[in-house]
Amino acid sequence: MDKLAIIGGRPLYGRLKISGAKNSALKVMVASLLTDKPLRLTNVPDLADIRQLSTLLQQHGVDLRRDGDDMTLHADTITSTLAPYDLVRKMRASFNVLGPLLAREGEAKVSLPGGCAIGARPVDLHLKALEAMGAEIELDEGYVLAKAKNGLKGAHITFPFVSVGATEHAMMAATLADGETILDNAAREPEIIDLATCLIAMGADITGAGTPTITIRGKDRLEEAEHAVLPDRIETGSYAMAVGVTAGELTLENARADLLGAAISTLIECGIEITEVENGLRVKKNGGRIKGVDVVTQPFPGFPTDLQAQFMALMATADGASTIKETIFENRFMHVPELGRMGADIHVDGQVASVRGKPKLKGAQVMATDLRASMSLVLAGLGAEGQTMISRLYHLDRGFERLEEKLQNVGALVERVRDDT
Ligand code: EPZ
Question: For 231-290, what is each residue's pLDDT tens digit?
């Protein structure tokens, strides 16, 4: 199995291109199921999760072609409305095929995704939203059996708390429902706006995406469209923090400050200089240590849970103490013991991690536990003394495109090594 070897302590200089957002690309790919016309996407990252979803969509009958960052998906005929366990369990975003299949074909059988390392992650809000639109739903042997023989109907849905996936799921299904659907307490993440932009290009009638109330007026059919996936805000924040744990100056091409919400002001408060430049962001840190700053993860525009682990690596060498509160997922501190192996001083009490910054961490052998936790170990390794060896790299490959190449190009000593022990 591959490992990542990092020799820490090198400053980072140069230009680094931010890829298309994984969590946006996955949803707009699913949107292709809503029409029998082609959907052309650009800026699609080449990641394990994207390949996984491609396999599922092909299994539903989507003719999917990839050429570099471009992808064309054409669901002329849906050949199967079954999403099997083996394809859904590996990636939760696959569950979102349920609504579009149901809206277009009047029925679908989709495996429940199950929990995952960062928490139980139920799908009750997704199912309640579809039921409110008239779907009959049964659970049987780990599968959701959904029927809407006379089509879905517009509904007024108020989510009890903010869910990105449920908002996206309901929004997609509502584009083909009969009448108007109103989603209240909707998620406001940039990926929601991106999905709405894509659906509108396909002919959907959607207003309010990016606000807590989204209104969708259903159409009989959606049409051919083209859409460019927005840049990955989590990759942007992660590389900005890479400058924070080392030193140097990076130009993050394609990065957009407006996608980062509270993360931008937090990083600036820590002492990382961030300026908008043409087509990107310039991120700079001179010698000296980052300042300890407290954060609480929140739905957008709050500090994103998907940057929490990386931020903890940054705080591990900050000047001063900080607290990091995780409010979105119940088990998203698995990186803590691994950072501890590198000498970090972190104490967890329930949802709160208290971090006492140290001048330096020391390289060690560590294990990636989930996607974003893996990136926190990469950051810790870039800033540490000596060599860090990270195992279970498949987590990183799910969500960070060409990570070693991007880091090597800006001066980091990072190498993927084969380890047969
Ligand atoms: C999306 O997950 C992202 N995944 C996650 O990124 C991200 O961490 C999360 O949004 C929050 O920003 C994708 O877009 C593919 P939620 P999602 O529904 O949609 C609970 C990454 O590393 N909940 O907003 O699944 C849920 O358990 C991943 O790229 C219910 O209880 O997140 C969680 O505690 C990890 N019932 C909270 O709501 C439901 O029906 C928010 O989850 C749905 C969610």
Answer: 999 999 999 999 999 999 999 999 999 999 999 999 999 999 999 999 999 999 987 899
Tokens 């199912």 label which residue? 127
- The two most distant CA atoms of the chain are separated, in Å, by 65
Specify whether 270 is catalytic: no
106 conformational bin, left if phi > 0, alpha if psi -120 to 50, beta if neither:
left
Which member of 82, 116, 268, 334 is catalytic?
116
Q: Which long-range contacts (CB under 8 A, 24 or more apart) does 138-143 make?
A: 139/112, 142/85, 142/111, 142/112, 142/114, 143/85, 143/109, 143/110, 143/111, 143/112
Tell whether ligand 1 has an atom less than 6 A from the beta carbon of residue 170: no
**Which of 161, 164, 332 is the pocket-test mutation for ligand 1 (most atoms within 8 Å of CB)?**
164
Check: pTM over 0.90? Answer yes or no: yes
Picking from 242, 216, 180, 228, the residue whose alpha carbon sits closest to that of residue 40 is 228
Q: Whose CA is nearest to atom 39 of ligand 1?
A: 123
Q: Whose alpha carbon is nearest atom 25 of ligand 1?
A: 165
Closest-CA residue to 251 (of 215, 275, 286, 226)? 275
pLDDT, one tens digit per residue, over 177-218 is 999 999 999 999 999 999 999 999 999 999 999 999 999 999
Q: How far apart are CA 258 and CA 386, in angstroms?
A: 36
The strand order across the sheet containing 63-67 reads 63-67, 70-74, 38-42, 225-228
Which residue's alpha carbon is at the smallest distance from atom 16 of ligand 1? 163
Q: Single out the residue of 368, 343, 276 nearest to residue 8, CA to CA.
A: 343
| Ligand 1 pocket residue status of 195, Cβ below 6 Å | no
Instruction: Report yes or no: 289 and 314 within 8 Å, Cβ to Cβ.
Output: no
Calculate the average pLDDT of the chain: 96
